[in-house]
Amino acid sequence: MRDPATLGDMTALRAEIDATDRRLSALLAHRQSLIDRAAEIKTGAGLPARIEARVEEVIANARSNAEAEGIDPELSETLWRALVDWSIRREETVLGQE
């Protein structure tokens, strides 16, 4: 990751944004594979897709991580709630709970 202060023009800045977006996509792909594995484990354990205490734990972690990184915790919560909701829908499909 390059320091934004070293990016002298919009071309360099946009290239760094695009590279960051590729890294984020790779991380999201990894998270999706973890969700798929969670669905497999939950199937065997008889667990539901949505476990409310875990949902709130993930959101609290997202807010805490955002604050530690200097990111708006409200933005982080909004993004993570969408991500968690999508993940639960994916698990529900695997578990036949949709």
From TrEMBL:
Natural source organism: Alloyangia mangrovi
Alphabetized InterPro entries for the sequence: Chorismate_II_sf, Chorismate_mutase-related, CM_dom_sf, CM_II_prokaryot
Record Pfam families: CM_2 (PF01817)
Gene Ontology molecular function, alphabetical: chorismate mutase activity
Enzyme Commission no: 5.4.99.5
Lineage of producing organism: Bacteria, Pseudomonadati, Pseudomonadota, Alphaproteobacteria, Rhodobacterales
SMART domains in the cross-refs: CM_2 (SM00830)
Entry keywords, A to Z: Isomerase
Secretion signal, residue range per the UniProt entry: none
Superkingdom, taxonomy of origin: Bacteria
Entry's Gene Ontology BP terms: chorismate metabolic process; salicylic acid biosynthetic process
Keyword Magnesium: no
Limits of the Chorismate mutase domain: 4-95
Name of the protein described by the UniProt record: chorismate mutase
